[in-house]
Amino acid sequence: MKKAIVLCPIMLLLCASPLLMANGLNLNGLGARAISMGGAFVGLADDYSAIFWNPAGIASFDKNMLGFSGDLIMPTATYELTFGGSTFIDAEAKSKMYPSGIAAYYHPLTEKLVVGIGVYTPSGIGAEWNGSDFFVSALSPLQSQAYNNKSFLGIVTISPVAAYKVSDMISVGASLNINYGFFNLSRWAGGALLELPMPPYALPIDFGQYKEDSTGWGFGATLGVLVKPSDMFSLGLTFRTPTKISMSGEASISNFSALGYPGESEFDREVTYPMWLAGGVSLHPIENLTFTLDAQYTNWAKLDQLETEFTDSIWQVAMAGTAADVMELKWSDCVQIRFGAEYLLNKLAFRAGYYYDPGPAPDETMNVLIPNYDFNGVTFGVGYRLNGLHIDAMLEYLMAKERNVDVNDPENEQPGIYNMSIITPGISVSYRW
């Protein structure tokens, strides 16, 4: 063998895929009532989900409160690769349901001070594709068979919280966010072409299945302010700090050991959960009608690139030699615009909302396992109130703008035509006493 192994370009993606929180991966809200109002809840924040939207709203609770919500995220995605008049890949993701939710308890200590604790999932989704749909010999001559092609990621947050009513008009609140992150990935590991001094002069090598599992912890905080000049108007502001999640795990490449290399390596990776800043307004033009409006900014540009540190020395050399230990994201900051409405009719509530959620990733970093889209979301919901018992149900539908990533641009990691829609039903129950 005259030359060292030359890794396929796809290894740049496969071995550096980290825990990413992005449009299409982040949950677009928590709590059935809040989501059914389009997630425009920062300026209202008057139920148990306030710990996520604006902890200052908790200061208005004059009774003990316990609430929980469960949602099922059901994405549908397709991917098509066509060039030269021929379609090489026409794939549809496997049907999956990803659970999410929030649970919280609050206890007033005085007329002005309320404390509590919540557990929720601010981010969590995944994708799974039939490996055979992506096994095209003309595109991947080094691949000898179909491999698993899936991802699953998420964050679970535990938050102790306190809120204080500064005056009848102003409330403030803060929570400590203890974040537990996890990420699983399975894909083809790429291949190599070994040059030989005699016929056949070149020998294709398939590295096999790449798998990665990692978990980690990080800490942050959420700060909120709620101003209510009158019963007809309130204004909220929420700041969630960036959080570094230190991930650790193990990666494996199935055919590495047959080539005389270690088949597994532990690794470490730091991922920054980005800063979130949101402002909201709530209007009550008549007694039983509420309108809400939010603008929510996410500092996605903080995730410019992510580095992976492999423990095994051979893996370090192999990955560094192909830049597979650094993943360039090139993301941009984004602002979501959200609208919501609620109308109360006796013990019933009727709700609707809309929001626009732009994706941070450019065409260069778009791929089927961690996709990014511009979403238009519509939401609907109903609620029932009986004394201290509140039962709410919601339905959320996200429509993605089709992404056509140019196959003729060599900078694009995975060109093709992408489509996605997401349906999320949910229900919540809360009780005050």
Descriptive report:
The chain contains four helices and 22 strands. By secondary structure, it is mainly β. It has a single domain, classed as Porin, CATH 2.40.160.60. It has a 14-stranded antiparallel β-barrel. A two-stranded antiparallel sheet has the order 7-8. The longest helix has 9 residues, at 313-321. It is elongated and about 85 Å long. The termini are far apart.
Summarize the SSE layout with pairings.
Blueprint: H1 11-14, H2 32-36, H3 50-53, E1 65-83, E2 86-92, E3 98-108, E4 113-129, E5 149-165, E6 170-188, E7 191-195, E8 202-206, E9 209-230, E10 233-240, E11 243-253, E12 264-273, E13 276-286, E14 289-298, E15 305-310, H4 313-321, E16 326-328, E17 334-345, E18 348-357, E19 375-386, E20 389-400, E21 403-405, E22 416-432
Antiparallel strand pairs: 1-2, 1-3, 1-22, 3-4, 4-5, 5-6, 6-9, 7-8, 9-10, 9-11, 10-13, 11-12, 12-15, 13-14, 14-17, 15-16, 17-18, 18-19, 19-20, 20-22, 21-22
